[in-house]
């Protein structure tokens, strides 16, 4: 039963436009959420017949996609999908005969059968039949008014499936704007899971369509092999821009895995003030405090007020671990700073009147980390003092950066932990789909 429409252009309450399903919650009959919709699986058919919808790909747990047959779906609304409670927890594996709508159909260039004009696929709609099957009946398309991966928008229309042709052909330069729009609300780690599982061709198209900041966030969450592959397929100038947008510690880790010639070329293309901290980080051992640290902690001068310090850590893009404390240093406040004076934890900032100077509440009792300290020593330090970050200070008293707990965990876990999270198969629940 369909109780709502997911596309405002549709007048039919039994038509569901699939891009609008991406990311919505999936519930069992008791009202418990089991996951979120990632994609819809269809089977293309010969003779221009509408594709048959096989089911939904639902992400349950941490980045584990499973298959939910469409016959078990009982309700689809604008903000929820409800199914009958039966769900095989076997990890979804796409078969050769199957097509993923969001990952593979959106942004494809097809042609209108009547005029032969090329159009881009914006969305596709599935509709139920009298036999309880679901078929792809409509296609939302946009006429081309530009060229390349980032075509400008033209006239939009909704046409019947058999009014277009070209879905069966392998397309080069498909673009990825629609796929990205479908997952724009996803956290970078979740989008990274999607990107990891895309075919190499689509992965390249997604990387080309993402803006630098978003791509940088996704790269930070991807396994090393994916990072190297994606960066290697970008134009060198853009690769340098993306590295600048990454956290310095993550960018340095990625650069450290590249051949020396490629690494040096990218560093040369970067802005000098962006490349300098990366060059410093690359001089340290990977599993030392210097190799683990970021060079962009929150630093304030001693005459800053509590209100000013709180304003700095309210920055929405700031890593939560970095936002847990500010480091008080004499000028210059860019790393490597002037003399390091100590740390003020955010809980202390919340307890003090806004006009209070941070110099009066700085914690000077805790010795900072040294850049040569080992990973084990850093982990022990953070665990001993219940910290989520620690200052890294050189022998001359200059703040070099800060090590955060997420980077420590990243290095304590097995090297392939990201692949394990993305690819590990759940315990078999029995049966097949």
From TrEMBL:
Extract the GO molecular function terms from the UniProt entry. magnesium ion transmembrane transporter activity
Query: InterPro entries given for it?
Result: CBS_dom, CBS_dom_sf, Mg_transptr_MgtE_intracell_dom, MgtE_N_sf, MgtE_transporter, PRC-brl_dom, PRC_barrel-like_sf, SH3_actinomycetes
Name all CBS domain ranges: 362-420
Alphabetized Pfam families for the sequence: CBS, MgtE_N, PRC, SH3_actinomycetes
**Please, which domain of life does this record's source organism belong to?**
Bacteria
What would be one Gene Ontology cellular-component term for the protein? membrane
Gene3D superfamilies in the cross-refs: CBS-domain, MgtE N-terminal domain-like
**Which SMART domains does its entry note?**
MgtE_N (SM00924)
Q: Which UniProt keywords apply?
A: CBS domain
Q: What protein name applies here?
A: CBS domain-containing protein
This chain's source organism reads Actinomadura macrotermitis
Its lineage reads:
Bacteria, Bacillati, Actinomycetota, Actinomycetes, Streptosporangiales
